[in-house]
Amino acid sequence: MRSHYCGDLRKEQIGEEITLMGWVHRRRDHGGVIFLDVRDRQGIAQVVFDPEREESFAVANSVRSEYVIEIKGLVRHRPEGTVNSDMPTGDIEVVGLELTILNKAETPPFPLDDHQKVGEDVRLRNRFIDLRRPEMQEKLRFRSKVTSEIRSYLDGNGFLDIETPILTRATPEGARDYLVPSRTHEGSFFALPQSPQLFKQLLMVSGFDRYYQVAKCFRDEDLRADRQPEFTQIDIETSFMNEVEIMDIAETMIRKLFSELMGVELGKFPQMPYSEAMKRFGSDKPDLRIPMELVDVADLLANIEFKVFAGPANDPKGRVAALNVPGGASLTRKQIDEYTKFVGIYGAKGLAYIKVNDVAKGAEGLQSPIVKFLGEEVAMQIVARLEAKDGDLIFFGADSEKIVSEAIGALRIKVGQDLNMLVCEWAPLWVVDFPMFEANSDGSLSALHHPFTAPSCTPEELESDPTTALSRAYDMVLNGTELGGGSIRIHAQDMQRSVFRILGIGDEEAEEKFGFLLNALKYGAPPHGGLAFGLDRLIMLMTGTDSIREVIAFPKTQSAACLLTNAPGEVSAAQLRELNIKLRRTP
Ligand code: ASP
Fold first, then answer.
1. Can you tell me which atom of ligand 1 is nearest the CA of 194?
2. Could you tell me if residue 321 is inside a domain?
3. For binding L-aspartate, which residues are annotated in this chain's numbering (predicted)?
């Protein structure tokens, strides 16, 4: 057995005989003396082997990187001049007395201290080695601390940790399901849960009052940098609490995490209605660290000849918004071209701008391809509304409301980051008063959150004008990322049926898919609500990482595959037969 972890050795152990077990991080031969840097999960210690101890010296001479070894040795002060203040164990070294090789290792596919130059695919294929790197160890250790803090907070507040099934029926959260064929029920499939939503609601009907789970969720959707097909939620549900109380419990939990694990005081989170977030920031998850806002200018442009602006300005579904970039007049033509390409990703057909060189000179002080189309008066009205100063630049978006909000909202973030405009490190907020539904291109409606979210009106009001109805949902946003979200749920059967009807789910289909929920709502369902946090994203933000894959031990690639195990993989003909599945290969 080891007596100490390598990385935990300090001056206090000087003079002690100890036993270490770990991996050879590096081996150096220094004029007859061999130094082994030995690594374990706590860190690295330096062990010295002297030729006078022939046996252990010979073994030390034969070990290579990543061999697994056991060392008995004596802790001593490092000789004067060799103390390394960059290493936690840098005051001491271990004189190696005995050395045993527990296992040999082939040369690793990449050096552990030079991962920057190693492609992510190589790292993922050899994840067990990649995870040996101290940064990765640190991230996973931090992740473990976060879940432990969360558990202790929720346990302390009377929440019960209850597991819900992985093999289940579809839970609609807006993604495609992962399906698992049933062997015992020919032609039938389980769905992996997109979230434990329906089960946690049933647990409230059962009277558990406060539930949580560190839950795996599965969503088959096109992946982006911050998405994974399977991910972890901190899933929470409560009974008899309103949104103010639920948000307070959740906010206190996040504040405590930041304060205790990072020494960061987040303060009270502001709240912002969805409509305001979209208007001012073009996003329902605004990054409040960037001090720029979208400003509507359609009213100033409604009567001009220039159709590119006048069209959307007069269209009820259109939007014309401007963004003043302080100091932006120094952007080069090339940079502006790049931003034009960037907004193109969001469907914007162009990116008009005005450089404000000298406000006092009126339109003459403006440099822009569009001022001649706007006319001097309108141009100056815009400059005044945006409070633009000499040296600023105003960008414009004119299109459908959706395109303008998304494109200029994203541009705001990109420019803010490129020009280092962030005014603080952490900017949390709650976004509230979401619409119940969003319209699809064919005119049908989808639930903005999920179909179990309670509206803030009666069923009659909801059915008479679903498009304007607001929901009792809330999202927690941090630095432009949605950390979590939830809502007060529907607990009355008639309201649930109304929502299904509005979503085009007829009574028969509702019965077939969600009969168990509708049934449960008949038998004394308490008012309830909750929320779920995306644990991976939370850890990603807390550790300052830019990919969710860096904080998951065994993540999948952007194409939803595991390079380590080669999953998904083919299965044998016998397995398929047993499942009554016949593959239809595209020729
Ligand atoms: N089930 C929701 C989700 O996965 C969270 C919630 O409403 O509690 O986003």
1. 4
2. yes
3. 173, 219, 449, 489
